[in-house]
Amino acid sequence: MLEVKLPELAEGVNSATLTFWHFEEGDHVEEGEDLVEMATDKATFNVPVPSAGVVNKKFFHEGDTVNVGDVIANIKLES
């Protein structure tokens, strides 16, 4: 299982709002696809899928605030 975490953001920015999921639990994803859209006061950005697999669990909902380093989702890796 691979944990997808909110990466480091700009200096002084410690959290972002989850604005849109591109996939649902159970969906197959490919490395590099946009998994989730996040927004801060100054920017909107996508967090990519780090490795191909299946979205096993989403830990946040649209509108939730996510802190840097929080696990956003688990990806079940392909064998």
UniProtKB/TrEMBL annotation:
It holds the Pfam family Biotin_lipoyl. It comes from the Bacteria. Its cofactor is (R)-lipoate. Residues 1-76 form the Lipoyl-binding domain. Keywords: Acyltransferase, Lipoyl, Transferase. Forms a 24-polypeptide structural core with octahedral symmetry. This is Lipoyl-binding domain-containing protein. It comes from Candidatus Aquitaenariimonas noxiae.
